[in-house]
Specification:
By secondary structure, the chain is mostly helical. Helices cover about 80% and strands about 0% of the residues. It has helices at about 1-5, 10-45, 60-85, 85-100.
């Protein structure tokens, strides 16, 4: 079963690609894993400090921090997609061409 699985042309393409890009792929995985495993719990545990005469968020602090993080994440992904000329659409077109061959 293993030989049948690894002899499939798509699997060979994935293995060849991963063998060349395993370091950046691992780095990206660890970045997302650590960020998303710590992000909600750590943000929710932060308490707002109260200083006399200053603007306070109080119980809104968690909501504001979550909204800012998610908004910045969305803007960053959008900018990357625009600057790369729609990288996602190009990759999807490449996959369609490979499937047709």
């Amino acid at each position: 079963i293993y030989k049948q699985f690894t002899n499939h042309p798509k699997i060979q393409i994935y293995i060849a690609t991963l063998s060349k890009t395993w370091k950046p792929t691992l780095s990206m995985f660890l970045n997302f894993f650590v960020t998303l495993s710590l992000f909600p719990g750590t943000i929710a545990s932060i308490q707002s400090s109260s200083v006399e005469g200053k603007f306070q968020l109080g119980s809104w602090l968690t909501i504001v921090l979550l909204a800012v993080f998610n908004g910045a994440d969305m803007i960053g992904r959008y900018i990357l997609n625009v600057e790369c000329g729609g990288l996602a659409s190009l990759l999807l077109q490449e996959e369609v061409v490979l499937e047709e061959e």
